[in-house]
Amino acid sequence: MNRTGTRLISALAAGLASAALLASAAHAAPVAISTLPPGAINNVQAQAVAKVVQENSDLQMRVVTFNSPAAIMGAAQNKQAEFAFTSNDEAGVALRGQDEHEGKPMSDLRVAASIFPFKVGIAVRADSDIKTVADLKGKRLATGWQGFKQGIPLFNAMLATEGLSLDDAEAVPATNLLRAADDFKAGKSDAFMFAVGAPKVAEIDSSVGGIRFLPLNDSAESQARMGAVRPEYHVKEQKPLPHLVGVDGPTNLMEYYIVLLTNKDVDDEVVYKAVKALYENKDGLVAGHPSFNAFTQGGMADQHEDMEYHPGAVQFFKEVGIWKD
Questions:
Q1: CATH class of 28-117+258-319
Q2: pLDDT (tens digit per residue) in 78-130
Q3: C-alpha span between 119 and 158 (Å, rounded)
């Protein structure tokens, strides 16, 4: 072979090596998952998701935080983050263009995976004379929720089980979930709303000498009133568990689902790798937080009204036989 041919082969080899390095770098490029700030249970859960994905794929996933579900989903809609960790009720109104999304639906959002059912409730001090949701009429409750618009339907849905709403309460202006919880701790309100099992709940329980979650009425009429606020909401019993502060016995709470969202333009391979890592590593998720005991492989492909799955996720779910047309 002459010198020219040798140089051509060397150049070709170098080009192929560079291409391989670039491809490797592309696959190892960081991706982001957006969620609520530290103190919220969603933050702990998103941290667990990111850790499992990083340790079981070549994706480098970092957690970015925002103060509201709208901002969390907006990060995925606007391609500031590849994934968003939020609830199916917020995803539903965003995709349908309802409530604060009126006239501006986040139509590029897709579901990467359904994570697990999620419970929230209204808590009071353990020694409070408030025993039921009906007893909250006229009591001091957080209102406004300028920085956490989801707080309005969440609170109203639980109050609706007894035919009440925030209009029946004495208003205590609050900007977001954490601020409202701090106001309760400071004695400014009579009850607060939060996710069961959240670090903030444990903090408040310790600070005020104990808290307990109020049981929700699960009659057909109460369920219907709750579902009228948002169709994703329903009442579900929660049994006591060591990590669930404030749940002293079987207690009816509000349940909806946590989902991992993505953007329709995120590369199929990225979404495929992320859901594959989650599917194959439940133990790692549970190690991150006990709430992942509710995570199931088959449940990852659960369908939600008005919500479409990303093709990368569908491809993986079909391969493992859990996809439901």
A1: alpha beta
A2: 999 999 999 999 999 999 998 888 899 999 999 999 999 989 999 999 999 99
A3: 12
Find, among 174, 199, 191, the residue nearest to 36 by Cα.
Answer: 199
pLDDT (average), residues 164-192: 96
Diameter of the chain measured on Cα atoms: 95
Report the distance separating Cα 200 and Cα 203, nearest Å: 5
| Residues in the chain, overall count | 325
Q: What are the residue ranges of helices labelled H in 29-55?
A: 41-55
Query: Coil, strand or helix: which one is 317?
Result: helix
Q: Which of helix, strand or coil describes residue 309?
A: strand
Strands (E), the chain: 30-35, 60-65, 83-87, 109-125, 140-144, 170-174, 192-195, 211-213, 234-238, 251-263
Dihedral sign (CA 143, 121, 308, 27): positive
The burial of 290, by beta-carbon neighbours within 10 Å (0-12 exposed, 13-18 middle, 19 or more buried), is given as middle
Nearest Cα to 124, choosing from 249, 246, 241, 248?
A: 246
DSSP E strand stretches across 55-147: 60-65, 83-87, 109-125, 140-144
And the tokens for 187?
Answer: 């004695």
Q: Which residues pair with 237 in a beta bridge?
A: 252
Instruction: CATH number for 119-256: choose from 3.40.50.1980, 2.60.120.10, 3.10.20.30, 3.40.190.10.
Output: 3.40.190.10
Of 272, 323, 308, 270, whose CA–CA distance to 94 is shortest?
A: 308
Write down the pTM of the prediction: 0.78
Q: Hey, which residues does 61 pair with through a beta bridge?
A: 31
Please report, in angstroms and rounded to a whole number, the separation of the first and last CA atoms in the chain. 58
Distances (CA, A) of 166 to 119, 139, 145, 186: 20, 10, 11, 20
Q: Are the beta carbons of 313 and 111 closer than 8 angstroms?
A: yes
